[in-house]
Amino acid sequence: MRITRHVYLVGSGHFGLSHAFDSSVYVVSCDDQLVMIDTGAGCEPEKIVENIEKENLEIEKLKTVLLTHSHADHSGGAHFFSENFGCDVFVSYLESDLVGTADERLLGLDVAKKSGFYSFDYVFHPCKRIKQLSDGDVVRCGKHVFKAIHVPGHSPGSLCFLIDLPEGRALFSGDTVFYDGVVGLLNIDTCDLSSYRKSIRKLDGLDVDMLFPGHGIFPVSRGQSHIDKAIDAMKRLQIPKNFI
After folding, report:
1. CATH assignment, 7-235
2. Judging by DSSP bridges, how do beta strands 7-11 and 25-30 pair with one another?
3. For the chain, percent helix, then strand, then coil, each to nearest 5?
4. Distance from the Cα of residue 162 to its chain's centroid
């Protein structure tokens, strides 16, 4: 599904584009390269490849994967794209070991399976071709630059990726902030409301046009207004509406 001149939605359990476990999976066309933001859970990654090819995009140009965080619905497909297409997989240094070892307890998969988010036969395959990111790091693809913004809260290493495109400024926000100021609070040890409240302020004043969250609706204009709604609620010591 082409969203803008450069941005495509190629996977989503919410919209029925790929496996039900999948987060939103985006591809950005960057000159002669393709960049994927999040990979889905890795259950039926061939469907994501099919969606890419349906858009007349050359899958061979996919060499970079950016992970917003390590939760399985976002990162479980990293192994597939790394092994089959030689992609470098970028993730926060705080969560790189989780993606690299596939430890179910550290990934929170044991709790997620017991809670019904994943079937008990779901397997997360470790990804070895990993590059670590810190706050403020940039990933260059052609003429385009993705800036990593560390926004801990939903997970310790949650990243948002900011990029200026010809059609406007875009933020790929993972599960940090969604349409209408909704946030991604989870009742697990690694989700920290205090960190969330402080770090989300990093997204203030970015003047984002397009907001591409990890699930659901993606506003292609006035994206900053949705971010500001979550920030304002946190400033008033309110807990914003929650995605889960």
Report:
1. 3.60.15.10
2. antiparallel
3. 30, 25, 45
4. 12
